[in-house]
Structure formats: structure tokens, C-alpha cells
From TrEMBL:
BP GO annotations: fatty acid beta-oxidation
One Pfam match: ECH_1
Cited InterPro entries: ClpP/crotonase-like_dom_sf, Enoyl-CoA_hydra/iso
GO molecular function, one term: lyase activity
Gene3D superfamilies named among the record's database cross-references: 2-enoyl-CoA Hydratase, Chain A, domain 1 (3.90.226.10)
Superkingdom per UniProt: Bacteria
Key words of the record: Isomerase, Lyase
Organism: Desulfococcus multivorans DSM 2059
Protein name in UniProt: Enoyl-CoA hydratase/isomerase
Family to which the UniProt record says this protein belongs: Belongs to the enoyl-CoA hydratase/isomerase family.
Length: 254
């Protein structure tokens, strides 16, 4: 892969994606989004990858959109950029393997929107997190208008969006915006440990559970969701990995 703005490595069944424009706090331009989609597709197609961790190089997860790129865009060019951004977010939200955001520093605007699209978020205690779009006469993307409310409720989501205030990782954990906040030096170890634990589980089970969770968050009725749960469970228990998983589970209990 010819990547300019993304780093990628594999470790113990985990794909590690690193946003890599540290000189601009990993601000997001078109090249970064294209590289990101390339790497995500690679991780998705690799049967050895069971989970993914996304983090940033240097002092930031991502400081959001590269504003230098946006100043002189025409409406047509801006629409094309936003559509590409939304497509990348859709692919991440629909990605059938678990994704953990390891938020190592600034996660601002579309940088935090990327983290919102992940399944699990772990932040450094002193990370700076926020959606300041209202401060720069913009609006949020990446499904954040729904994803944020799902995590912190409509009242807190409105507060964060209307004020554009930043909060630290420790406060984000307190309100449920991230799953966990840890000292910066423990961040990647914590994220990789969780990802490796997930990677030990049956891939088909994780895929079906994740699909069902998305259905439950959407407009699917409870009846349709419960019908899906039957089919998903049957698909899992009839797979060969079911026997292996049961044998392993019984051994762990002894």
C-alpha cells in the first residue's frame, strides 16, 4: 500500500491504524481520508485481523479538518469532500470487526467524529475532546448528531454541540463519552490489551453481535431484531469455530 498520511501494522490479530500527519496535529485532508479507507478495507479483508485500534501519531488523535484546505474550496469541491468524508464514516460504522479508538491527545471536530464512529473509545486522561464546529461557523458530520446523543443523551449532546466546549478525557469517561480514561503512558497498552482479548473470541459471533447492535440502535422493530437474533445464533452455533470455541472455553474454566 502506498500510504502518505496513515501508518498501519499488525500485532497478535489486531490491526493498528495510526493517523500520521503529526506536524499539523493529524489534521484531516482528502489524502488522509483516502488512505484511511484503503487501510480499513485491507484490515476488513484480512482474516487474521480480528479487531482494529485507531490512534494518532504525536500529540493528537486528530485536530479535525485541515482548515487550510477548506478556505478556498468552491461549494462543489466542498460537497465532494464532505461526501467522501461521510463515505469513510459509513464504512467505519458498518465495519464488521470491532474498532477501538485510542485517543492520545486532541480529538477535535471531525477527529472526534472519527472516534465516535468506533465501537469503543479509550482516552488519555488529559486528552482534549470537543466538537467546536459552531465556533467556526460549520456543522458536524460523520453521523455525530446521532452517535453523540446515543452516548451521552440529548441534553448533554446539545450542551457540547451548542457551546463547542472541550472536555478532558477523564470528564469524557465520567459522562460516558468514552469507555475509559487512563494515563497517557498506559493508553496503547490498555487499548491493545482490550483488542487482543476481543481478537481471541469467535469472529462470526462478534460480527453477528455487532450487526445486531446496529439494528437495535436503528429503526428496526423489536420483533425484527429478535427474529434476527435467532438467525444469528443459529449461524454461529452451526459453524466449525463453535466446537473449537466450546472446547477452549471449557479448558479455561478448569
Amino acid at each position: 500500500m502506498n500510504l502518505e498520511c496513515i501508518g498501519y501494522e499488525k500485532r497478535k490479530g489486531v490491526g493498528i491504524i495510526t493517523l500520521n500527519r503529526p506536524q499539523v496535529l493529524n489534521a484531516m485532508n482528502r489524502r488522509l481520508w483516502l488512505d484511511f479507507q484503503t487501510v480499513l478495507a485491507e484490515a476488513g479483508a484480512d482474516p487474521d485481523i480480528r479487531a482494529v485500534v485507531i490512534t494518532g501519531e504525536g500529540r493528537a488523535f486528530s485536530s479535525g479538518a485541515d482548515l487550510k484546505d477548506s478556505r478556498n474550496r468552491s461549494q462543489t469541491d466542498y460537497r465532494a469532500y464532505l461526501e467522501e468524508l461521510q463515505q469513510a464514516s459509513r464504512r467505519l460504522i458498518r465495519f464488521d470487526k470491532p474498532v477501538i479508538a485510542a485517543i492520545n491527545g486532541y480529538a477535535i471536530g471531525s477527529g472526534f467524529e472519527l472516534a465516535l464512529a468506533c465501537d469503543i473509545r479509550i482516552a488519555a486522561e488529559n486528552a482534549r475532546i470537543g466538537l467546536p464546529e459552531a465556533k467556526v461557523a460549520s456543522s458536524v458530520t460523520g453521523g455525530a448528531l446521532r452517535l453523540l446523543q446515543d452516548l451521552v443523551g440529548p441534553g448533554k449532546a446539545r450542551e457540547l454541540l451548542f457551546t463547542g466546549d472541550f472536555i478532558e478525557g477523564s470528564e469524557a469517561a465520567r459522562i460516558g463519552l468514552v469507555n475509559l480514561a487512563v494515563p497517557l503512558e498506559q493508553l496503547m497498552g490498555t487499548a491493545l490489551s482490550m483488542a487482543e482479548k476481543i481478537a481471541q473470541n469467535a469472529p462470526l459471533s462478534i460480527k453477528m453481535i455487532k450487526k445486531g447492535l446496529h439494528m437495535a440502535q436503528g429503526e428496526t422493530s423489536m420483533e425484527a431484531l429478535m427474529d434476527f437474533e435467532i438467525e444469528a445464533c443459529l449461524a454461529c452455533v452451526s459453524a466449525e469455530e463453535r466446537r473449537v470455541s466450546l472446547d477452549t472455553f471449557e479448558t479455561r474454566k478448569k
